Amino acid sequence: MTNDELIEYCRQSIEKNDYIAFDEATFSALTEDSAKYIASLFAADTFILLPQFEIDFFEWLKKEDFPVWQDLWGDVTLQPYLVGASFLPMLVRKDGRGFPICDLQDIDNYYFSMAHMPDEESKLIIESSKTRFQNKSGLTVAHLLALEISMDPIDIWHFTFKHGANLSDAKKAVAELVEDKAIVHLTKSEHLAVFLVLND
Question: Would the pTM of this model clear 0.85, i.e. be above it?
Answer without folding.
Answer: yes
